[in-house]
Design a protein that fits this description.
Elements (H helix, E strand, L loop, with lengths): L1 H7 L6 H13 L12 H8 L3 H12 L1 H7 L12 H14 L4 H9 L10 H4 L1
Helix pairs in contact: 2-6, 4-6
């Protein structure tokens, strides 16, 4: 789960990162309850408390179908799970998960304020 989240939080995915995400989504069930699965409880808890992380992860999940349409060879031939469907399910969970007050406050600001726009004493 942590490897998948670390890859999904990359703002500009390269082909290696995309391949890693696809292989994880193709091999592990989303919330299967088994030892080897994508832990949806942890996924939702993390994304429901951090708007920035939520924004980047959901953006990457939303682009999966398009990215794989352009690079179908990245999907392993012996995949157990459909990576685009898995990404879609994770995206649904991220959108539906309850959000913390901190998340909601940060979401109200949106992308209007960036760290580089803050006064120097606050940005560092």
């Amino acid at each position: 789960m942590d490897v998948l989240l670390s890859k999904l939080q990359i703002v500009e995915l390269n082909e290696k990162d995309l391949r890693d995400i696809v292989h994880l989504l193709a091999a592990l069930p989303v919330g299967g309850g088994s030892q080897a699965s994508i832990d949806t409880d942890r996924f939702c808890k993390l994304l429901g408390t951090d708007w920035g992380w939520w924004r980047t992860v959901t953006g990457n999940l939303a682009k999966m179908e398009e990215l794989l349409g352009d690079r179908p060879a990245l999907i392993p031939g012996n995949h157990v799970y459909e990576p685009v469907a898995q990404a879609g399910r994770l995206l649904e969970l991220a959108v539906e998960t309850p959000k913390s007050m901190k998340w909601k406050l940060r979401a109200n600001v949106g992308e209007r304020v960036r760290w580089y726009e803050l006064p120097e004493e606050v940005a560092h």
